[in-house]
Amino acid sequence: MAEIFVLVDHANGQVRKTTAELLTIAARLGEPSAIFLGAGAQEAQATLAKFGANRVYAMDSADLTGYLVAPQAEFLAALVGKLKPAALLVPSNPAGKEIAARVAIRTDSGLITDAVDVQAGDGGIETTQSVFAGSYTVTSTVTKGTPIICVKPNSAAPQEKPAAGQVVPVNLTISEAAKAAQITEAKEKKASGRPELTEAAIVVSGGRGTGGDFSPVEEFADSLGAAVGASRAAVDAGWYPHTSQVGQTGKQVSPQLYVACGISGAIQHRAGMQTSKTIIAVNKDAEAPIFELVDFGVVGDLFAVLPQATSAVQAS
Ligand code: FAD
Question: How much is the ipTM here?
Fold first, then answer.
């Protein structure tokens, strides 16, 4: 069976949920192999094997992790060139996209970013993407080289599929050219206790309708174990940090559930959330454009609706 490479997203060996999603997708396409860069492959091995990785190609070297992404791209391009997998799946985050683009250039391969679904088709691997600020949903197939595919978080529900997870150490020499930009300091973001916005299964977002008081949005989010997002109007007003902005000029999210509270549904906001699996809006204006794309809508004041919803979730 053809090997499908999955670039592991991890923090010191702690494998992120997106990797389990990518391995689940890889298992639909062929035989998943994980690529683990940096320290912690042995700790991660059990998780990777649980979600279907038959092999774990691993390299632990400061040459890979002490610099920006160029060394990782060089490593991956060399491995793809040598082992010729049927595809390489990479998380669709800023680092993942840059790595994928560099690998595609080096291996003369086609690249697809922001896929929300990946399936085996008659003409090869087919991906589904939402493009032009979500105006079109397109199906694409890479026709040149190794398909390099960046997959958005929450594109698949992780499914366990126990496999061997054999760790295969790989030692490649990283060129001096790839080590041009060194990481001199890395500061960990202060933990909010909430999931990362782009990875969360549930996102609750607030807009101008909050009037700057995000407490009902945060309390509802916490009752669901959700991440908190914001519209640009709320961010521009200084009510919430830019890192939480959802939309064309913010982050793109694709959770199982997206709850828009006091958000009108401008096209630029939709561009960041309309691939969410289920969308709920709370808005006091029944004519608000957000109601055009929701699965469930509540016409009402968020300051009355959200506390009731929070109590109901807490009581359940
Ligand atoms: P509004 O449009 O003002 O809507 C507020 C809503 O809250 C209204 O529908 C109102 O009925 C409702 N409301 C008010 N009070 C309550 C209440 N008590 N209870 C319930 N509902 C209430 N926007 C983004 O979000 N993300 C982006 O990335 C982004 N990028 C942009 C890029 C460009 C180039 C441009 C030009 C714009 C961009 N925008 C973006 C801005 C976008 O066009 C909208 O202005 C913005 O999304 C509006 O935010 P909002 O829905 O919170 O505010």
Answer: 0.99
